[in-house]
Amino acid sequence: MTDIRYEIDGPIATITLNRPEARNAYSEAMVTELVGALDRAELDDQVRVVIVTGAGSAFCAGGDLKAMRERSGMFKGDPVELRDKYLRGMQTIPRRFNSFEKPTIAAINGAAIGAGLGLALMCDLRISSDRAKFGSTFARVGLIPGDGGAYLLTRVVGFSRALELILTARIIDADEASSIDLVHRLVPHSEVLPAAREMADHIASLPPKAVRMAKTALYRSVDRDLETALHITAALQGLIQRTDEHDQAVEDLLASLDKSK
């Protein structure tokens, strides 16, 4: 059994963290396999949207506490070796998500704690079970968000709220996560994957190149000044406006408008 399951159904790829006995805590193999699954999805023209979820009762419990205690696996080595392990291991995940152009949806079926919360934040959209729990709990074990979580949480909920969640290391329920816009939709537990699939199907029904370029425009413009953002979007618009899918979409919309007259 591998630490990641990768399944394709039509235009949707589902990546499932597959260590349910460890509440889907990260292993070295999981890190490598997760990055590999994203590579596979990006290179597959059939795939238009990716769903990320967890097997069993948790979405992802973050770092493996037993491995931390034993100083094994990704937590093995002296301080310099640990630094290198983060740079070349765990931190390859946020880097890969940051360069991933296709839309990603986190189907949060249970606890998203520590680096597990970070993983949920790396996804573009988040659909949560009403039973899920969330927490940037690194301070509880004498650590900091070393997975990119501090950067990502600030972008999603704002600096002040992120500061409070990180410094208190408290765990919040799904209702509070929804109230601070940490998640986009809150659904009954049994509906998490169906709701994620419904959203993925809708996105997949849109012109895929336009969706990818729209995502790129948003992420590459958010921290820039207006003039830089305008130059970025002008370049991307120039690319997408000379594609066959744009021409077809315009024709389809005009035909639809003619029928409605």
Secondary-structure class: alpha/beta
Uncertain parts: none
Strand residue percentage: 15-25%
Main β sheet profile: 6 strands, mixed
Mean model confidence by pLDDT: 94
How many domains?
A: 2
Write the layout of secondary structure elements.
Blueprint: E1 4-9, E2 12-17, H1 28-43, E3 49-54, E4 58-60, H2 65-70, H3 79-90, H4 92-99, E5 104-108, E6 111-113, H5 115-122, E7 125-129, E8 133-135, H6 149-157, H7 159-168, E9 171-173, H8 174-179, E10 185-187, H9 192-204, H10 208-221, H11 226-240, H12 244-260
Helix pairs in contact: 1-4, 5-6, 6-7, 10-11
Protein traits:
2 domains, Lyase 2-enoyl-coa Hydratase, Chain  A, domain 2, 12 helices, alpha/beta, 16% strand, 261 residues, 2-enoyl-CoA Hydratase, Chain A, domain 1, 4-stranded mixed beta sheet, globular, 6-stranded mixed beta sheet
Q: How would you portray this structure in words?
A:
This protein has 261 residues and is α/β, with parallel strands linked by helices. Helix content is 51%, strand content 16%. The chain contains 12 helices and 10 strands. Strands 1-2-3-5-7-10 form a 6-stranded mixed β-sheet, with helices on both faces. It has a 4-stranded mixed β-sheet with strand order 4-6-8-9. The N and C termini lie far apart (57 Å). The model has no long low-confidence stretch (mean pLDDT 94).
